[in-house]
Specification:
This protein is mainly α. It has one domain: Growth Hormone, Chain: A (Up-down Bundle). Helices cover 77% and strands 0% of the residues. It has 21 helices and no strands. Helix 16 runs antiparallel to helix 21. The mean pLDDT is 84. InterPro entries: Lfuc_symporter_FucP, MFS, MFS_dom, MFS_trans_sf, MFS_TsgA-like.
């Protein structure tokens, strides 16, 4: 007998704790894959002798996979269950990790991008299902809070991924660029091949973990959490994709949320993608393994920042908190871009404290603007906004190549933070107007 009761709108009377924790454990799994990309960008730049723009294509392949698979993933959820989509995601994730092995032997950048793309297909399934499922797995009034709690697990995986990259991919000694510069052409070729083989090690570990999670998830009973019509109501057909898209295109609040999510994700990915490169640029005496420490600290800041955000969001207006976060974020980005000192790296790390509440809050609040029958597809399109992570880092890499300054290229993120702040300021003004109107009506009575 189930320990929960599901209401007609898909929400539960209580949160099943074990199932919620197990679902939340999926969040660090895509965190690990995403943070390993930050390592791969630095590794591939030296191994394949790439420009900053070309190295950022790792993120383009990764988030492009998310973009393409989100609608198909939502259709799987619609026809089956959230759990089925999650199992599909885990299987694709395992296949993608396995593709790193033939890619390392072929030793071509394109094959590695294909492997990253395959991983992203699995993660597209996982995120499309898990983000929405987390909001549904309990009482409706705590839906956004549940997603924020689940998202708190993300930086644990991100930190684990960067540590795997630091110790299994990067090596001690001089930086790769410095070592290659002192080698003959034959020695450099052999060294690059050795460095490519290092990229396999984190993915061996991930495959073992993923197989264990796949088995555990398959054996655990989960509620449907899908809206159902009341028994005495006439049965309505599920809306088609075309009908859903027409509805969402006409939903202005939803479109604004999509734009904010697109730019936020792009900014987050861009800052993290180039923090290691920024550290190497600002201090030529450190190597990749040492520079990776700044990403470990970044994810620790992100983790702590989520707890701080949860505390503030529980006590103050969500929109006020995020407007304040955005203003501080804009100032930090300007510091990173223009202060010719290694302290710019610390400012880049500090930005991670401010990133905690953005994704989950924008996602949860935007989903609330959508009628329940359109939730699955709307959630998928919100996940598709992750395509910002494919575009903004590439723009930053292009700016770096054009200006010859990795530090100045961080200015791209200023405009992203600015829009996110404007988005929440608009929501704050609307919130204040509703409150004033309510007070006026009470006074008139």
């Amino acid at each position: 007998m189930a320990k929960w009761i599901q209401y007609d709108n898909g929400y539960l009377n209580k949160t099943p704790i074990f199932q919620f924790i197990l679902l939340s454990c999926l969040f660090p799994l895509w965190g690990a894959a995403a943070s390993l990309n930050d390592v791969l960008i630095t590794q591939f730049k030296s191994v394949f002798d790439l420009s900053d723009f070309a190295s950022a294509l790792v993120q383009s392949a990764f988030y492009g996979g998310y973009f393409l698979i989100s609608i198909p993933a939502s259709m799987v959820i619609k026809k089956t269950t959230y759990k089925t989509a999650i199992l599909c995601g885990l299987i694709f994730y395992i296949v993608g990790c396995s593709l790193f092995f033939p890619a390392s032997h072929m030793a071509t950048y394109t094959m590695f991008l294909a492997a990253v793309f395959a991983i992203a297909i699995g993660l597209g399934f996982l995120e499309t299902a898990s983000n929405t499922y987390s909001t549904m797995l309990g009482p409706e009034k705590y839906s956004t809070l549940r997603l924020n709690i689940s998202q708190t697990f993300y930086p644990i995986g991100a930190a684990a991924g960067i540590l795997l990259g630091k110790y299994l991919i990067f090596e001690d000694g001089q930086s790769m660029a410095a070592q290659i510069a002192s080698m003959t052409a034959e020695e450099a070729h052999a060294y690059r091949l050795d460095m490519l083989m290092n990229t396999l090690e984190p993915y061996r570990v991930l495959i073992i973990v993923l197989l264990a999670v796949l088995l555990l998830f398959a054996l655990t009973k989960y509620p449907s959490c899908k809206p159902v019509a009341p028994k005495d109501a006439p049965k309505a057909e599920d809306p088609s994709i075309g009908e859903t898209l027409r509805y969402l295109v006409g939903n202005h609040k939803f479109k604004k949320g999509i734009a904010a999510e697109f730019l936020y994700v792009g900014m987050q990915v861009a800052v993290w993608s180039f923090t290691i490169r920024l550290a190497l640029t600002m201090d030529a005496s450190i190597n990749e393994r040492m520079a990776a420490n700044f990403m470990v600290i970044s994810y620790a800041c992100f983790f702590v920042g989520k707890f701080i955000a949860n505390f503030l969001l529980a006590r103050f207006s969500t929109n006020k908190v995020l407007v304040a976060y955005s203003v501080i974020g804009c100032l930090l980005v300007l510091y990173v871009s223009f202060i010719p000192s290694f302290t710019a790296v610390y400012a880049a790390v500090a930005i991670s404290i401010l990133m905690g509440p953005c994704w989950a809050t924008i996602y949860g609040e935007t989903l609330k603007t959508v009628d329940k029958k359109y939730t699955a597809t709307a959630g998928a399109i919100l996940v598709m906004s992750i395509i910002g992570g494919a575009i903004v880092p590439a723009i930053q890499g292009y700016v770096s190549d054009m200006t010859g300054s990795m530090q100045f290229s961080f200015i791209v993120n200023f405009f992203c933070f600015l829009y996110v702040g404007f988005y929440f300021y608009q929501k704050y003004r609307a919130e204040s107007k509703v409150s004033q109107d309510a007070n006026t009506m009470l006074a008139q009575k």
